[in-house]
## 1
Amino acid sequence: MMGEVTPAVTVDGVDMVFNAGSENEVVALREIDVTVQRGEFVSLIGPSGCGKSTMLRVIGDLLQPTAGSVEVFGQAASSARQNRSYGMAFQSAGLFDWRKVAANIELPLEIGGWSKPDREARSREMLKLVRLEDFADHYPWQLSGGMQQRVAIARALSFQPDLLLMDEPFGALDEMTREYMQSELLRIYSELGTTVIFVTHSIPEAVYLSNRVVVLSPRPGRIHAVVDIDLGPPVESTDSAKADEIRERESFFEMTTQVRAALRSVEAGTPGRAGSPGVADG
Amino acid sequence: MGERMNGLIPPVVFGVAFLAVWELAVVGFGIQEFLLPKPSSILEAIGADWSVLSEAAIQTGIIAVSGLVIGVVIGALLALLVTRFGRIGEAATPLAVALNATPIVALAPIFNAWFGITSFRSNQAVVVAVVFFPVFINTARGLLEVHPDQLELMRSYAAGEWSILRRVKIPNALPFFLTSLRLAAPLSVIAAIVAEYFGGPQNRLGPVITQNASVARYDSAWAAIVMASILGLVLFWLAAALERLVPWTQTGGEG
Amino acid sequence: MRRALSVLGGIGTLIVLWEGYKAVGGLTGDQWPATPWGLPVPTDDLTMPHVIDIMRTLGRPVQRGRDEILAVFLFKAALSTFWKAALGFALGTVIGWSLAVLMLRSRLVERGLLPWINISQTVPLIALAPIVVTWGRTTFLSDSLSVALIATYLTFFPVAVNALRGLQSPRPADLELLRSYAATEREILMKLRLPASRPYLFPALKLAATLSVVGAIVGEISAGVRGGLGRAILEFASRYSTAPARLYAGVVGAALLGLAVFGLVSLVERSAGRGAGRSLAGEGT
């Protein structure tokens, strides 16, 4: 596989300083090194203000780092964006009010210059993937929060981006919906095999979803610890209720405890136990 | 449907009560008709002067609507221009605020000098100036107040400026624009009538009001005022109906 | 500072546009360059006096044989108009608030009254001006008071509508919290609704302030009240053919008065609390 040669994302020595030189200077990120392999699911977790969203935006070429470099599939982040390698989803579903559900999903395809029949075929496929076939002709306001978020995920995946960047996409949902959405995301992830970088502040969410959890410390944002997640054999079922079995495993509790310990030591100011700071190769 | 009818009951009751008190007060306290005519006398005057009034209302309506259209187009285009080029915006926004603080009526004599005192274009220009501001400000707000996530999303798709304008900013501004249209529609009638005080052809509602008031035919003057209100209401309702046509909001854009 | 600069820049741009348009018209004989189409406004000095002439006329006597220069005359006129507008603004604000509180108290009153308050703004209030002045003369009101009443009619509407919206703006959870403290309706009004209405109120007051000037000027014109800007503009307009620059000076005076009252309310807003009363229109630029 080529994956061993070029990783999905290589973040190398990235610093991000806002308002440099002025009195309200903020060092959001300092000396960030991360490598994400193809097909990996990596979560960024940390207390608020640790720069996890900033890091996501630097990787997505929405912010230019003050120092260091970001490579995505072997190219600079800016060319990766021009080549439409990114799918993004935010905490607010960010659906366009004036577009029906299907048209929302087709938007990136439209910008990418797809033909109308291709767009329609793909949006039908995507709606099936997120199980919203019957809502193609609804306006976003007619949907519940969880359904809107599923549309946002369908939109982010519609053009089969190489890299999915998600910024607390389930942060505004209630616990039940949230767990359901997590299972759905895992199902879709295992069907498509995309690479995902996922920002969250929920420990169980990070553990449940990820192959690796990167713990960030705030002011300035640094990598504090990296926890490899191993929950045992995956559940071979598309039924999300069965997939929830993972949440009751012994390994799930062990892993959440490890991540929690790493986060605690962020607050205490001691180096993380699990993994070593700054080194995050998969 | 039944609910809608129920919603109409309170205002209708209030309106009828108001007219009844008015009528009774004029009769009961013996208020002279030249001070305040009874609603029934005004209604009679509308019937008696119908041909003059309807013609005047049509003429004023033409001025108001044509001025409204021109002002709305200018306001919306300028909003697009100003929000597209930040530099212009910085210089133009305080100017627009200054223009709004200017009593536009004071411009009427100047427009008379520009377009000729008997030309209807000078009246039209007053309407344009009055209508322009709410449209400009609201549309500009709609173009600027796009959710930051949506802009980031478009950038992540490597969408161009034009694509962002067409696909995000303009649809986002549409409800704001329609709200401003609803505000501007009745203003256009008022502006037309004020402008008519300063000049222009005489077969309009403004002159009909002043002429009747100056010869103490107050019932006829009030009749013309009622006609003007109806004209304003019709335009208001048309704009409000247009606003409700927007399918993607529950209420029809709140601005 | 930056804002002051951009305002100056704006004024400068306007002057350049004005003089530029005049220059182009002068060169092409009032036609769009290289086209057979005429310009919408002729550019001769009678229709569009030079900016410098408008400024110069401010320093000249108002009338032959009088010492008073135009600038002083206009200032006095603006002051006279200002007092009428201020009275109308005060009355309109009180009436607007009272209506808002009344509608807040009773859902029935709100549903019955609000549509009519909206409709009141389609009545060409200004058409009422001559009638209001006639009313005033037959009763005890001076003409100035009648003019103030016309300004009141324009002012009460934005205050009533926005005050109601502001008073109704607190979230249900906040209202429930205060009710859980057994607060009276009056306490809820003073401690929650009133502070919550501030961001709605000040934009309305700014609008009302400029509208009160419009109302006062229009009232002065229809009533023929001496001493104010409205009358001055009317007089200058009638002698436009001999001294066009004076009319422009009068209109600029009216614009400055409008800006002054707008600025006055903005100052009050700023001193009433930074941040809390941010105007919606000013955001995002």
## 2
Amino acid sequence: MPRVKLPRKSTAIDMTAMCDVAFLLLSFFILTTKFKPSEALAVVTPSSVSSKAAESKDVVLVTIDPKGKVYFSVSDDAPKKEIFEAVNTSRNLGLTSGEIANLSSVNVPFIGVPFSQLKSLASKNKDEFKGVNWPGIPVLDTLNNELTDWVAAAVSAFQGQKMALQVKGDNDAKYPSFQAVIRAFKKNDQLKFQMITNAEGVPEGTELYKKNMSNMAAGKSASAE
Amino acid sequence: MAEMDTSGGGGHKKGPGVKKGKKLSTRVDLTPMVDLGFLLITFFIFTTTMSQPTAMKLNLPKDTDKPEEQNKAKESGALTLLLGGKDMVYYYEGILAPDGSNFKSTTFKDVRDVILTKKKSTKPDDFVVVIKANADATYKNTVDILDEMTINDVKRYALVDIFDVENQLIKATEGSAAK
């Protein structure tokens, strides 16, 4: 019997479709990537099982660096100018309107000095903020916790609007700083706040894990608040 | 897609005298381009940190001097966790004995068992965890222990200032452990 001749087929595949997919994915990834804004304060946050994303609007952020120094900053959409005006009047700092304008501009990304040095901070540029050894806001003295004034200023500037009070602490920061921050919040009756953390998986077999599993089975979104 | 129709003229036959131009294939080998594309994708995936910061909520109790407004904790259901330096956790159940006999130490790895054991042995309504940290505890320890509350589904817990007695006990335990 004569063998059936199989037509020889070329092994070259049309790569066009694959190329399209590859570059589509590539452009998707490039466009969706948000670059981390370079932060003048290097803080490594601890991780928690909380899966709620941190709020990014109307943020009043208190940062604690590895040495336990405390910094105060607000997001750009917050009423920065009003905060500085409120601090100016409550502590009699004698800042001019020009200094307040500069302090509330992008030139000053965060406050890490006592009130006495705030005037010199007003002349600084954004580029001068990197690599400076800041003294931090004095908080450890319970009688003169300057963060209390900052939080009070923020509360009055927001005028009862919703503000997201956040604490971002470094792994190595010692507890007294955090305790002082809590005290400053408490004095202003700000009893709810958020702590910025990295996401972490829920350990298997724990109660939260079981709860999330049963929630998922029931069709609800598993969220760990 | 990568080829173009070069035959022209809608495909009808040309006359016998018309010379045909040599057909050059416009087909390009796209394999290296695909390679490049995927290489870039891999690069972007690996360099992107997907971790969006998450937020952990914490509600503080109101400071009050009036005893009727203070939250009461039953002694039998209370578990006090003390955070010390070097990632150590000290704990006692109920009220601290004057001689410190119910003062025990553990680590962050084993503290879950301590919490769960206490949780199982008490009525859910009475169970309350009191967290106190001393000056040597780090912020990470604090967040970890609060996280532990979420993980173990502890409904009632409070972050309270440490007492001197407890501080001294921690110091004494740390001192004896070092010897």
